[in-house]
# Entry
Amino acid sequence: MRKVGWFDIYVDDMDRAQTFYETVLQTELAPMDDPSDDTVIMRTFVDDFASHGAGGALVKLAHASPGIGGSMVYFSCDDCEVEQSRVEAAGGQIARPKFPIGDHGFVSLAMDTEGNMIGFHSQR
# Structure
């Protein structure tokens, strides 16, 4: 089986980014240490790794910057319009409102507070 096991979302302002993701996804992020580099700041999406989803973290690194044009993370939702409705109040922008993707459900696209393009996916 090939599946994504982890993702990093690069940020410039950790507190701002953490507030955005906690607000939009209605979740809590927890501090995570990098034992090999104490300059790395991380906040992990709490995951028991028993689910079908991938674990991941917001990451602030000296050698990586946020922005569009790279890999994109899609967050699974019951109805992506719900998460989409929280984006602007949390400081982000809607890039493309909820739209159908055929038999695969619906997607909405947003820019987070750091300039990263992210997606929300749902079946309804």
Observations:
- The first strand starts at residue 6 and ends at 10.
